[in-house]
Amino acid sequence: MVLGCCLPDPTVITGFPEDIELEWYKDIFFSCESYADDTTPTSVVWYLNGNRLYDEEDKIVIDRNHNLRIITRNDNDGGKSYEGEFMCIATNGYSRANASAFLAIPQEAIGKFTLDVAGKITSPFPCALRHGNLMWLVHVC
What we know:
Layout lengths: L11 E4 L4 E2 L6 E3 L2 E3 L7 E6 L2 E2 L7 E3 L5 E3 L13 E8 L4 E9 L9 E2 L5 E2 L4 E5 L2 E5 L3
């Protein structure tokens, strides 16, 4: 005789994060919708390039719907340090699912500048100056 029986429904990602391109100094936003059995709600954890992300006041916000928002307006690099793979992992304690999306840096914005004879940099905001492995973002071009 079998008594009681059922395992909860497995966790599934129902709304996948999408790849995006960085818009300098604008918030970065990823969503990750998941579902599991109603008796075992899901929790979601976010990672960037394999490193777990945590809420950080005025920087990283993970809301109650498991959406991720990164505030870049105060960053020195306009958000470039967040380049890479964002992964959400949803679990209900019995199973887990994950999904990934990438934040890319727009290549046309890097190195797009001109120098006049006085050494003044002229370019639409934002602009960047790259020399070897170094890159400077110029806030006033």
